[in-house]
Amino acid sequence: MSDTYIIEVGSQPAGIIVRSEGGYRFFAASHRFNRLEGQIFRNAREAERAARQLLSGMTLAA
Question: Which pLDDT belongs to residue 2?
Fold first, then answer.
């Protein structure tokens, strides 16, 4: 299992997650994903799901 993953939504980089105590910590790649900055996720799939939900919520609100 890797210690670092790149999270993308479509072809857009959302951030990276790095293994830390308790799971994987998210580091945003752009301001669109700042709300996820520092959050801990159990795995890469959970982080990607959160990034997709955040982006789709922004799209709907715009």
Answer: 81
Any idea which residue has 């709300």 for tokens? Answer: 35
Provide the CB-side half-sphere exposure for 58 (13 A, CA). 12
**If you ran DSSP here, which 8-state letter would residue 22 be given?**
T
Coil, strand or helix at 55: helix
Pairing outcome for strands 23-28 and 40-41: antiparallel
Helices (H), the chain: 44-61
* 6 HSE (CA, 13 A, CB side): 7
Give the model confidence (pLDDT) of 2-27 as tens digits. Answer: 899 999 998 899 999 999 999 999 99
SS3 34: helix
